[in-house]
Amino acid sequence: MAFYTPLRYPGGKGKLAPFIQDIYTANNLSDGTYVEPYAGGAAVALKLLLEGYAWNIVINDIDKRVYSFWWCVLNNTEGLCQQIRDCRVDMETWHQQKEIYTNFKNYSVEEVGFATFFLNRTNRSGILCGGVIGGKNQTGNYKIDARFNKSDLISRIQLIAKYKCRIKLYNKDALQLVQELNPNFDDKTLVYFDPPYYVKGKMLYQNFYTPEDHSALAQFIKGSKHPWIVTYDNIEEIKKLYEDINNVEFDISYYANKERPRGKEIMFFNNIKIPCIPYTRKIDFIKNAV
Predict the structure, then answer these.
(1) Beta carbons within 10 angstroms of residue 142's beta carbon
(2) 13-62+173-289 falls under which CATH superfamily?
(3) Which of 10, 32, 87, 210 is the most exposed place for a label (fewest CB within 10 A)?
(4) Domain ranges of the chain
(5) For residue range 122-141, what is the model confidence (pLDDT) as tens digits?
(6) Residues in Cβ contact with 152 at an 8 Å cutoff, skipping those fewer than 6 apart
(7) Which Gene Ontology terms describe the biological processes this protein takes part in (predicted)?
(8) With b meaning 16 or more CB within 10 Å and e meaning fewer, what string describes 156-171?
């Protein structure tokens, strides 16, 4: 399966893309708008756009640093690519980019965008607040440049930039964004909510949610009349928030730990039908449909 995003993200939601493509086909959503209020690496959004399922996409991230990277992809494409070509992928550069990332308010959007990208590609599992691949002494089995194939990453960025007129980028609170855009949604708009994990969000993301945040989001989503999907860690607190909403339980690999466990997750959906899943589509992680 082709991956188009230049970013690595814990959670592995890009593996859901073939399933969501099937949802597009089954619900006649082709050539519509796909919205990711929690874009992060935007793996699903980019696959839908670049493979001709969605006509345009809306990506949003409240983290100014992640937003800065996507701004550079769309508005400073060649500058970003040149930075990637010229950079040394070593610990000296890592410390420099860590300083920029940590004190991002003191730097330009171009500097912050590149720093975010550099740390994402050189940190374990792409966790921006995590440790460097191979450790600071570079004694691990993999070194800092293990996930930094310059030519491949530049090609991905250049390809995305070719579609920039069909990509809208925002830096807003997710709930605020969908409240503002909701009047413009139509029957061919699919919104995919992938909020921070309820249990491990604080460990994985810069912008994690409190239980009250999760509850406020659930109340808004359940009141929406447009097609939507929500994915979460599969726990009782979340099931209570989305009680009586159609759901699919599944396993998905995520790589935030060395053991590479399979995380139990759940997808809630409304105003769409879930298609039959042929084994040839290689999405056999679906366990139960309700």
Answers:
(1) 12
(2) Vaccinia Virus protein VP39 (3.40.50.150)
(3) 210
(4) 13-62+173-289, 71-160
(5) 999 999 988 999 999 999 99
(6) none
(7) DNA restriction-modification system; methylation; mismatch repair
(8) bbeebbeeeeebebbb
